[in-house]
Design a protein that fits this description.
By secondary structure, this protein is α/β, with parallel strands linked by helices. It is built from 6 helices and 5 strands. The chain binds 4'-phosphopantetheine.
């Protein structure tokens, strides 16, 4: 009897930190694919608010309710990582038309590099359409909060990070 091939998807991103919008995409991907690897980019040229271990810890906690989702990190080209993982699909979330241009370019570039890998877009929920990690970081830096948009671990660490920072600079 022919065995069903397992389909593994990589959901890559900076996840600095993971938001409820990302969790929503991971949940929907987990319902479609056998395995989903939420893969956090470590780009040594870029400054992050949270280092890769913190981003991994926040994401693992936020996704612990999804048994077929694991959290990992990668450096270098995404398609090399996807091949290494024996995955077939790249998952990306779409919020608005404005995301599309960049995502379309990235999908075509990745296809050029690795024609066998498919990019799969999942549309976000309307409540998360304006949510991004960079907006969240700015709001916390300026003393605001977004309790219903972030997993508990992300909220806690953002508060610690920016409260600690404001004490240091007083
Ligand atoms: O959450 P982000 O920052 O929008 O995620 C972007 C990410 C990590 C998917 C993208 O920058 C990426 O894949 N980087 C790895 C380097 C790479 O493969 N670049 C070529 C893609 S066109």
């Amino acid at each position: 009897m022919k065995r069903k091939r397992l389909v593994c998807a990589v959901y890559p991103g900076s996840f600095d930190p993971i938001t409820n919008g990302h969790v929503y995409i991971a949940e929907r991907a987990a319902a479609i694919f056998d395995e989903v690897r939420v893969s956090i980019l470590l780009n040594l040229q870029k400054q992050y608010t949270f280092d890769v271990e913190e981003r991994r810890a926040i994401a693992s906690e936020a996704l612990s309710h999804l048994p077929n989702v694991t959290v990992d990190s990668f450096t270098g080209l995404l398609v090399d990582y996807v091949r290494q993982q024996d995955a077939q699909v790249i998952v990306r979330g779409l919020r608005a038309m404005s995301d599309f241009e960049y995502e379309f370019q990235m999908a075509l570039m990745n296809r050029q590099l690795a024609p066998e890998i498919e990019t799969f877009f999942i549309v976000t929920d309307a409540q998360y359409s304006y949510l991004s990690s960079s907006v969240v970081r700015d709001i916390f830096r300026l003393g605001g909060s977004m309790d219903n948009m972030l997993p508990q671990g992300a909220l806690r660490r953002l508060r610690e990070r920016f409260q600690a920072h404001s004490h240091k600079t007083e």
